[in-house]
Design goal:
Elements: H1 8-18, E1 25-26, H2 28-37, H3 42-52, E2 60-61, H4 62-85, E3 92-94, H5 95-101, H6 109-119, E4 126-128, H7 129-139
Antiparallel strand pairs: 1-2, 3-4
Helix pairs in contact: 1-4, 2-3, 4-7
Amino acid sequence: MSGILLTNAQANEFFDQCDASGDGNISIQELVKVLTDYGLPQASVIEMFRDIDKDGNKQISREEFVGEVCKKSRKDAVEEMFSEIDKDGSGKISLSEMKAYIENKKIDANRLEELFNQVDTDGSGSVDKNEFTQMIVNDF
């Protein structure tokens, strides 16, 4: 799901597509059927099922599914955005990289610097992935 940010509505719609029996839960067989039709290997689907089935009851509830799918989607989106901004691949975002990224976003340069300094919690002059993730999670 890398690069795809699913809304709750989309995750619920996909849950309904997977829940062929309509019992409000997804069995491993139901998930395997749908996702192997999309080309995923069965072993990967089984591993995914185990990751999502938090209570281990061999059924994925709507709550488990939507929560996990949306969480992974957000994480993937944050990582993709970080990589897009981190042009030199250093694993850190410099102020100049941040400025270049939002150049077309019409944010005042002083406001950008103020925001950057708030996100750069350790005062290193760059924003690492943890600081960036915290900014996205807490502020957006």
